[in-house]
Amino acid sequence: MHGEKNNMKKIGILHGKERSFPNAFIERINNKKPDGIIAEPASISKVIQGEPSGYAVIVDRISQDVPFYRAFLKNSAISGTAVINNPFWWSADEKFFNNALATKIGVPVPKTVILPSRDLPADTSNESFSNLTFPLDWEGIFNYVGFPAYMKPFAGGGWKNVYRLEQMDDFFDKHGETGELVMLLQEEIVFEEYYRCYCIGGKYVRIMPYEPRNPHHLRYKSSFSPSPEQYRVMEDIVLRINQYLGYDFNTVELAVRNGIPYAIDFCNPAPDADLNSVGEENFEWVVETAANYAIERAQDCKEGKDNLTWGEYIKRSIEKQPLI
């Protein structure tokens, strides 16, 4: 019996302080009793270069905040683990690139520019920025984006350091508070409807009405309801974004203005999946779908091979193919 357990393919989940989703995910997989597969919290006692982790699949919910975990996952991946999400792509990705990619694959996004940090990065001086025009073309930037606008970090998640700006003076005042953060300045989309959409495996989509203007615990309580045609349009956008980025588990936020869904935020590879915030129906969907997908990846995992998901952007770049 002990030898049989050692031969099982293991699915691990790497997480921080969250409990409802990781516990339900593990329980759901083990209750399904998939042949030759078990699930557990990922356990790390040491990390040796080039040594396998012992997991066929690891679902990553925390490495964005823990560099040690990110290094562990890359080492696991190079040794054959299917890491959800690909830690190499996640390390390289950020919101401004995502917007730039969206413009190339036909996904509507708000007008967006990236800005150098207000304060000099550590170990740099004014001489480090001789290639940067001073002052920037603020008139051109403001004319392109318009006001009101939002300013937010080009990397990082959640609503941290996010500002709504009414006019140019407001921008300079708030930008002065951002220190060494590299910020995006983005057109405000005044929306009639808003949706937060899970995408798992680049093929399973859950479109959830969402009201970002509500208090956090009430954001999934809204009356938005897409028509069948609008649902299909949003589903296509969500699938296209995630297939090109190569994310196995992500959320896309869509703001609908004049009937057009704009992708507002679609770099959420460790999205909120807590029962208390997403609600019972959404929680059931994400637990069941994530469990089934992790089992699928474990079944497909080939020992000694690269078992990561690589997006269409990377694959087409390697093959020198056009994006669309």
Can you walk through the features of this model?
This protein is α/β, with parallel strands linked by helices. Among the domains are: 2-91 and 292-296, Rossmann fold (3-Layer(aba) Sandwich), CATH 3.40.50.20; 111-187, Dna Ligase, domain 1. It has helices at 2-6, 20-32, 67-78, 87-92, 95-104, 138-145, 168-175, 228-245, 275-278, 280-300, 312-318; strands at residues 9-14, 37-41, 57-60, 82-84, 112-115, 149-153, 163-165, 183-187, 193-200, 204-209, 249-257, 260-265. A hairpin with a 2-residue loop joins β11 (249-257) and β12 (260-265). α2 (20-32) crosses α10. The chain starts with a helix and ends in a 6-residue tail after the last helix. The relative contact order is 0.16. The model has no long low-confidence stretch (mean pLDDT 95).
Number of helices, where a helix is a run of at least 4 consecutive DSSP H or I residues: 11
Q: Class of the domain at 2-91 and 292-296 in CATH?
A: Alpha Beta
Q: From the alpha-carbon coordinates, what is the Rg to the nearest angstrom?
A: 21 Å
The spatial strand order of the largest sheet comes to: 2-1-3-4
Tell how many strands the DSSP assignment holds. Answer: 12
The average pLDDT value, as a whole number, equals: 95
Helix content: 25-40%
Tell me the span between the first and last alpha carbons: 52 Å
